[in-house]
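Propose amino acids for all 242 sites.
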């Protein structure tokens, strides 16, 4: 398998993982808010843990460049949020009448996937161990996003296949962005710490501004915090042994 094919395959797998979020809706019409909060907490811990790996790798290629990249990553998330803010929709919390809310939900999720595709792509520039960690973190993070999309679509009469399809669709920017991001940091090696910093900044900021507030809104704080801590530590330990 060529490097490019491998990057595309891994990023496609993370996109397909989003479809897993639709599966519970084969059995139930709705998901309890606490379950959504706990899956968000698992995703948050994995993403924060994977970000440690990113910063450690990026620092090896250039500390200031990593910090600069992280700042741009935070800026990118702020920019996409502002772009979407006019619609009045936050991740996982569409408002407004049915069809409009479904459409906005899918748009928000899809736009937000771009930086995750970049994260998967640049992580391959830092070696397979880092790439595996980021791929796992993003894939698991995608499952509650599929849950959130399906939770909006399913009660409005969408078929299970449509829920899976739109969930996967919302993550298609990941395989689409991962390959050019990877090829770029491979061709322009000095860009690698910036790219890795970007991925770390975008992921940490997304956890803090989107995933954790939503989790704390929907479930008791202590179990959410405990899940984040344990998955974070497990992810850091896992990366030490890869
Ligand atoms: Zn996401």
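Proposal:
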């Amino acid at each position: 398998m060529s490097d490019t094919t491998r990057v595309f395959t891994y990023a496609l797998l993370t996109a397909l993982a989003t479809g897993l979020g639709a599966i519970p809706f084969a059995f139930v019409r709705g998901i309890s808010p606490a379950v959504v909060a706990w899956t968000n907490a698992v995703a948050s811990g994995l993403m924060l843990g994977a970000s440690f790996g990113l910063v450690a790798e990026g620092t090896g290629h250039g500390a200031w460049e990593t910090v600069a990249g992280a700042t741009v990553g935070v800026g990118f998330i702020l920019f996409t949020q502002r772009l979407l803010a006019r619609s009045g929709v936050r991740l996982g919390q569409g408002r407004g009448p049915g069809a409009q809310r479904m459409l906005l939900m899918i748009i928000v999720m899809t736009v937000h996937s771009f930086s995750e595709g970049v994260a998967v792509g640049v992580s391959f520039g830092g070696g397979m161990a880092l790439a595996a960690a980021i791929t796992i973190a993003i894939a698991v993070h995608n499952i509650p996003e599929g849950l959130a999309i399906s939770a909006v679509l399913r009660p409005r009469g969408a078929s299970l296949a449509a829920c899976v399809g739109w969930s996967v669709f919302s993550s298609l920017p990941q395989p689409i962005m991962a390959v050019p991001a990877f090829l770029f940091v491979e061709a322009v090696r000095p860009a690698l710490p910036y790219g890795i910093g970007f991925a770390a900044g975008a992921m940490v900021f997304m956890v803090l501004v989107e995933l954790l507030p939503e989790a704390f809104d929907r479930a008791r704080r202590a179990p959410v915090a405990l899940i984040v801590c344990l998955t974070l530590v497990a992810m850091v330990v896992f990366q030490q042994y890869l």
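Residues 3-22+41-241 form one domain. The pocket of zinc ion is lined by residues 112-113, 116, 141, 145 (CB under 6 Å).
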